[in-house]
Amino acid sequence: MKLIKLGLTGSIGMGKTRTTLMFKSLGIPTFDSDKKVHDLFTNNNNLKSVIAKNFDGVVSNNIINRNLLGEIVFQNKKKRNELENIVHPLVRLERKKFTLNAIRNRFPIVLYDIPLLFETNSLKLYDYIIVVTAPKFIQDKRVLKRPGMTKEKYENINLSQMPDFKKKKKADFIVHSGLGIAYAFNKVKFIVNQLRNIR
């Protein structure tokens, strides 16, 4: 029985986290790459050492200052690539472990929440692509409410991501998160039921 792999993505502030939780509530195992990065930053001492060597002043008392690191990489493309080259292989390894575990446990469907799915050219790893979207005014409101977020930082993040309209063109399924939780959840249920019927 082939494991169906769903790749979920969307620009910042589109509602990916909440949508991922909806899939999880329907019994779909989920791999949250942002959460995995956070875990690695918190618990992986080798990673902390490498980041301390390559990014001055970012690690203090064995703690990575994520806000400072974010400011550095979103203002400097070379530094952003450097960080991605350090972190992405570790995330890929964790994703592989998650996939092998899903196969061992005979799960029919799994979901990977990958914010930079298109930007990292990883479409081929997934059977179906789900894009979470919302109108720009809702996206702006959500993002600018985040602690430590500034308009400049938000603009830099947007510049590093593929535009929403291009993502939607590449999607197999689109979840509109700006029309209320019930509407989005109905769409998630529809996707899961449709894929379960394929099997």
Describe the structure.
The protein is an alpha/beta fold and about 200 residues long. Helices cover about 55% and strands about 15% of the residues. The chain has nine helices and seven strands; from the N terminus they run βαβααββααββαααβα. It has helices spanning about 15-25, 35-45, 45-55, 65-75, 75-105, 135-145, 150-160, 165-170, 180-199, and strands spanning about 5-10, 30, 60, 65, 110-115, 130-135, 175. Strands 2-5-1-6-7 form a five-stranded parallel β-sheet, with helices on both faces. A two-stranded antiparallel sheet has the order 3-4. A hairpin with a 2-residue loop joins strand 3 and strand 4. The longest helix has 28 residues, at about 75-105. The mean pLDDT is about 90.
Distance between the termini: 8 Å
In round numbers, the mean pLDDT is 91
CATH class descriptor name: Alpha Beta
* SSE class: alpha/beta
Low-pLDDT regions: none
Main beta sheet: 5 strands, parallel
Q: Which percent bin holds the helix content?
A: 55-70%
Biggest sheet strand line-up: 2-5-1-6-7
Provide the CATH architecture. Answer: 3-Layer(aba) Sandwich
